[in-house]
Design brief:
The chain is an alpha+beta fold. 37% of the residues lie in helices and 22% in strands. The protein has 16 helices and 13 strands. It has a five-stranded antiparallel sheet with strand order 11-10-9-12-13. Strand 12 and strand 13 form a beta hairpin. Helix 2 crosses helix 15. The longest helix has 18 residues. The two termini are 18 Å apart. The relative contact order is 0.16. It binds adenosine-5'-diphosphate. Adenosine-5'-diphosphate binds next to strand 6, strand 8, strand 10, strand 12 and strand 13.
């Protein structure tokens, strides 16, 4: 199937009534502050929802229009696309939108203008592409082990697919690696294919910061809008068990995000924070033009050498931005007013309309 044609999207945007733009998204993930932020900036809002999932958007009063679908994946259906275009909608993609709609569908058949660069989404979805972009940006990542035989210190073993760290494990030698793989296979948690595709990386013992950036293509500037750390089940439950009982409990860790804490980073680390964001934005322009365009997130661990080690990125609004729906310490410093990531997106759209540059920030 062909790709969504950039010229077609540009044509749709050209025909939109710029005085009556609707900001739309799927009812999940970060929709609350995407929609609330859009209203703060004076836009109409629409949410695409499965029946029964509309409750927060209704109760918090953030959506002007509800588009109901049987299943979330139906957001790519022609009739939903028609409705969205008839509302002059710009769709803000978030993690659940990409997961439910399917990346192929977003690339191949979602002919509705989206905020940001839709081509960059694949770069976060594929581990090799993500690693290439981060490393070529000069960003420090956990060292990767090509062979389990080479394991010489604590490593984290990850398996393909977004499984929230379910089944990821930590080991420190080749023997321990084999033991754990055998055990997981015997429990039916892993297939031979999973094992062949195991990704082994240095275990970074440090503290977690997920750093939320916004790249304004209009201003050619990278902003740091907020930071969170993850609250993950069951690992954050396991660490509350004293060591001896932990051994007896024989629980396997998982890293399913169940919530987020707002956090600020030691001020002396901020130059590294900005450097990483700036370098990634420059590299992304080269690898997948026009680049990051809008929100992105670097998921980091800070080790005791005060290095920021990045183990993952989101090339769109990340769920941790929910920690600053009313602004963060950093967005306050930058803007002096409550600025969520959702509102920042709509501010960019508003500025683009004023400057007649909507095509620069949509695809
Ligand atoms: P997923 O994308 O499946 O959720 P992640 O790569 O985000 O998996 O990893 C899940 C969690 O594991 C992270 O939130 C972090 O707490 C931890 N983690 C990931 N990579 C490392 C690493 N190299 N060293 C230490 N902890 C890590």
């Amino acid at each position: 199937m062909g790709k969504v044609n950039k010229e077609d999207i540009k044509e749709i945007i050209d025909k939109y009534d710029k005085s009556n733009i609707t900001i739309a998204t799927l009812g999940s993930h970060t929709a609350l502050h995407i929609l609330r932020g859009a209203k703060q900036e004076g836009f109409r809002t629409a949410v695409v929802c499965e029946k029964g999932k509309e409750v927060p958007y209704e109760r918090f009063g953030v959506a002007d229009e509800f588009i109901f679908v049987e299943e979330y994946k139906n957001i790519v259906d022609e009739e939903v696309q028609d409705k969205l275009r008839s509302m002059n909608a710009i769709v803000v993609p978030h993690g659940s939108f990409v997961a439910y709609a399917g990346l192929d569908n977003v690339e191949d058949k979602f002919n509705v203008p989206m905020f940001g660069n839709r081509d960059v989404l694949r770069w976060e979805a594929e581990r090799d592409k993500e690693r290439k972009m981060l490393l070529e940006s000069g960003i420090r990542m956990p060292m990767k082990y090509e062979n389990p035989e080479d394991i010489d210190k604590a490593v984290m073993v990850k398996f393909p697919g977004a499984r929230g760290g379910q089944g990821y494990f930590i080991c420190s030698s080749y023997d321990e690696f084999n033991e754990k793989i055998d055990e997981m296979k015997s429990r039916g948690w892993l297939t031979d294919e999973d094992v062949a595709n195991a990704h082994i990386e240095e275990y970074v013992c440090g503290t977690n910061y997920c750093i939320h950036y916004f790249y304004s293509a209009l201003k050619d500037e990278v902003e740091v809008l907020g930071m969170d750390s993850r609250y993950e089940t069951n690992i954050d439950g396991i660490v509350r068990i004293p060591a001896q009982e932990q051994m007896e409990a024989n629980l396997s860790p998982s890293y399913v995000v169940s919530g987020n804490h707002p956090v600020v980073i030691r001020e002396s680390l901020l130059p590294q924070v900005f450097k990483n964001g700036d370098q990634l934005v420059e590299k992304a322009k080269e690898l997948v033009a026009p680049g990051m365009n809008g929100p992105f997130c670097l998921q980091c661990l800070v080790n005791d050498d005060r290095e920021i080690v990045v183990f993952e990125m989101s090339a769109r609004i990340d769920g941790g931005t929910n920690t600053f729906m009313n602004g963060s310490a950093y967005s306050y410093i930058q803007f002096g007013e409550p600025m969520s990531m959702g509102r920042r997106i709509s501010r960019e759209i508003k500025n683009a309309i004023k400057e007649d540059k909507l095509d620069v920030i949509t695809t």
